Each structure stands twice: as C-alpha cells, then as structure tokens.
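One thing: could you explain this record?
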Amino acid sequence: MTLDVLIVGGGIIGLSIAIELKLLGASPTIISRDFKSAATLASAGMLAPDAEQISDPAMQQLCWQSRSLYREWTCKLENLTGLNTGYWSCGVLAPVYNLENNLPPSCDLNSHNRYWLDGEVIHKCQSGLGKDIIGGWWYPEDGQVDSRALGKTLLSAVQSLGIEVKEGIGAEAILEEQCRVVGVQTKTGLLQANHYVIATGAWANELFPLPVKPKKGQMLQVRVTENISSLPLNRILFMGNTYIVPRKDGRIIIGASSEDVGFTPHNTPVEIQELLALGISIYPQLQDYPLEDFWSGFRPVTPDELPILGSSYCDNLTFATGHYRNGILLAPITSRLIADLICKQKSDPLLDNFHYSRFQTLSPKISSVLTSTKNSNPLLSIVNNTHQTSITDTPLVIAGKVFSSRLMTGTGKYRCIEEMQKCVNKSGCQIVTVAVRRVQNNVPGHESLAEALDWEKIWMLPNTAGCKTAEEAIRVAFLGREMAKLLGQEDNNFVKLEVIPDSKYLLPDPFGTLEAAEKLVKEGFAVLPYINADPMLAKRLEEVGCATVMPLASPIGSGQGLQTAINLQIIIENAKIPVVVDAGIGSPSEAAQVMEMGSDALLVNSAIALSDNPPAMAYAMNLATVAGRMAYSAGRMPMRSYASASSPLTGTID
C-alpha cells in the first residue's frame, strides 16, 4: 500500500506537522523509533526568543512568528483533545549581577519587547532573588508551555484525528531513485508514500548526510512544598544558559547543560551539581525544595544553530529538523510552513534562509535541482548565505518598508491563474504589481486575483496601467489604495504610476507623470513612477517626493533588453532613492547586467509570462537578480587594454 505522506520522527515537530497536514486534507502516517527519547519530553518548554536574544534576523522572525501563533495553536489542540498543554504567557525575568556588561545605552532601557528593572524594582517584582542581583531585564511577551503535557496533548490530537502512528518503528534507510524517494526501509519492511518528511531531530544524520548532531542537555526538577495556590515563583528566571522555569502545579525545572558527548546517556553528578549551584545563586529558595527528578535529552544542532527546513534534492522529500534549543517554540510555525509547502505548494520566503543547501557546495545532486520546477531554491540559498557572510549589503527599502528580494513581478499575460501563482512563488519576489483597472473589469486572469496570492506575504503594488492622463491615473491610484486595504494591507499606500497615452510604443508621458506624481505625493502616496530613461525627469520626480523611479530598459513588453544603458547609468549614479529598472528585460543575462550596473531592483513580467516555461524562467530571473546584485557588491575587475597573465611569471622554475 502506498501512503499519502510518511513522517519519519514522532517528536513535537513530526506530530505537529502531521496534525497540520491532516487539517489541510492530507493523510499522514508517522513512524517513531521511541517517543520517550524525543527532545520534546526533555525540554523545559521555554518560549523565549526575546530573552535568548536571537541575533540572526531570519531566525528572529521565525521565532517571533511562532510565538505569536502559540495561544491559538494550543487552544486548537486543547479543543481537539480536552487536555491542557500548560501554555502560560508568564514572561521572562533576566537578572543581572554586573551593570557594566549588561546595560545598554540609556535610550534602549525600554524597548518594544523588553524593559529594564533596577535593583529595588526587580526584588519587589520577584521576591527571593539572590542578594547580589542589582537589576534585570523583563521580557513580557515570552512565556512557556509544559513540554510533557504538550507531548501528551499532541499524541491525543493525532489519535483523535485518526492519524496512524507506528510506534517502535525506526527508519533504517531511505531508498532513492533519480532524485525521488521510493521508500523507507524499516525492520518491519519497506514503507512507501507519495511524500516523505524527515523530522528525526538529533538522529537526522543517520538517514542523510545532514550536518545535524546531538547536543546533550541535563536538567532537574524540584517541587514547591508550600501551598501552591500562591506560587513563590511565577515567572521564568533566565541567566546565560541557566533557566528556572516554574510550573503552575508547583514543579520548578532547572536547566540545562550543553554537552558535545554524542548520544551518551544518563545524568552525571558534576552537571547536576553545577545546575543546582547556579540555580540556587539566582533563586536561593531552591535549596529548600525537595529534589524530585532529573533527566537528559539530545538537542539537534547544526553548525549555525539554525534549523533545516523545506524542500530537499528529492522532489518528494521535505526536511524539518535541526531546531536545537527551539523545537518547542518553533513547532507551530514549522508545522504551518511545511504543511503549506506540501499541500499548497506554497513556499514562504523565510524558508530560503533555512534550506539544507546552505551547508553544501554545488554537487551534481544540487545542480540537478536547478533544472527542476519545484518550490525549492537551493542555489539562491547558497548565494544568500554567502552574501550575508562575505559581502556587505543593505536591504531594499522603499518608503520605509524593507524587502529582502530585489525582483518584482507582475500578474498579467499568463496563460492561467495557476501559472501566475507558480511564477510568483518561483521568483521569490515580495512585491507584485496588480493592474487596478483589470481587476475592476474582471479581465481574464484577474477575476480571482484576490484569492490567488497570499497577501500576508506578498506586498501589492497597485498599478495605474491603462491610464492616458494624469487625472485618470490619480483616480485609479485611489481605487488601488482601497483595493489593498480590502486585502488586509491597511498601511499600503504604494502606487506604480503609469501615464501612457501612446498606444503603439507605450512610452510614458513625462509631463502627465510628473503632474500626477506631485499630486499623489501630497495625498500621502508612496509613488513609484514608470518613466523613460530620462535623468532630468528622474531627478525632478525625486525632488517632488517619489519613493522610487522606474526607468525603462527598452519599450514595455518588447523584450529588446538593455537599450538605455547610458542613461540608466546616469540615473543610478545620481539618484538618492531606489532605482527600479522596469520594462524591456527579455532574459536573465539582461537582468543580471542591469543589477551589475547598480540598479536597486528589477520589475519583470513579460519575459516570464511569455516564455515557454514561465515557472523556470521566473526561477532563472530570481537567480540572475541575486547574481547581478552580488557582482555589483563584489566589484568587477578593472578593464585593461592589454593582457595580464593569470599566473605570474615570478618564482617560476628556470
């Protein structure tokens, strides 16, 4: 029998993904070697991205998004099962002994997610703290969940949904043929499915050459002996790698060691003693509570301590592993992203930051992926990772809004709405232009545009296409702003301004464009005007307050490529606002060339939509944009009128 989706791994990540897949209409099956050995049960259940001061921007966003989902997610599980997950938005208190190394400039004493408490306040806020504590940070948005209660709830939810769990069955090998998984070998036989998910945590490297290894953590538990109706400790205490996590039933968890000892089991006296000593120094009352339990577990850690999420080199295999210290925290967002990827073929741009290929060079297997049309973007992940670590660059900022992708795409000229969806996905873009008048008139391909794209992830750029006068364009711009609001983008005041009276060559009217731009800027619009490659007009539009200028490379939809290079270079060199080259780009090589010149971004539509394989072309434009930007940032070698040997002649053997 061929299963629908086979999830290898029965910890919190595997169980969460299975539930989300089931709710989206899939039929998942889980195989689990030993649920009791999963990191889920060993965790303290902290939900504390702020207190842990996660510095990687993508990881920070992933953690924040997941924490914001937690209340809704746990309510959903509790409604399914009638069990309590122990979710508690209790906040985290991070005590400080020494101001010198822990107190930032005074202007940062209170930020949107943390507050400084001086010595007097912190001891009033939490009695019983060590006398040497002279202040601390308060993180009100952080919290916790009872990991063991959550594990039981997840298992119960899986059972209530009719999801089959094959407990005690571990995967021994993954069988592959031509970049497809054809089965998972277990002791009980071969299991086959249409799609496979690897959620094996610290054991992932046993099945694939992924850089995931176990990081052992030891923990212990004491219990409050007083009347627990009034808990002596009602918020998490966190200092360095030591945390004290109170439960509402009187248990107090103290953790955790961090040991590179492989899968060495059991607790050790030295680590338990050190944890107790550190815990007591922070909260001395712990020494009076009876020691109730101690245990250890194995966190799955990668070299950069970030998870491995998303597609793989096999088109029916997805990775969800390497969560390190944040498996509990990231369960809601991981399950949502992976389920959307499998069931809806929707790849959130965040996933690119956690693709497995960031640890690999271009092997034949990865190279083969580049020719496919699946939702992964391994080369882009490699490029982005290199970009982040080797080349200094700034994000694309338009009217105060930050974008990581420098490629914009459109929604017109596609053969069908499904093709457009695939192309937007493969392009990796975050800004999509929408012709307001086409949506109004239900032009074919635009009837269900509101439902076709995820407007929580894609920023709409309303377009005044079809407007011949400044008056028309202004009127349509207001309609576009209302359309964006209807789709949930309340703060979207962007408009791509087009004033085109010429029906043959579709060249924009410079006078009408300038007139409309001035009026729209005064009305609070972020105006992105489409113009001829006219340096003087570009400067004038910048002076009236436009958010960008969008000069053409050649006539719109012509595919003639870069015909205005000299003027574009002048515009780029003199502009103090982003320059987005729009119109005429016909191939990825031309896209890369424009980016190498220093253009801030590209808008490409016809070259993608009118190609023989639009999704593949969208993917190619994505890579070209990144490559061109990287080349510009790196700086090309100087051109010479003479040859220069690659291998110097000095030091050669005579």
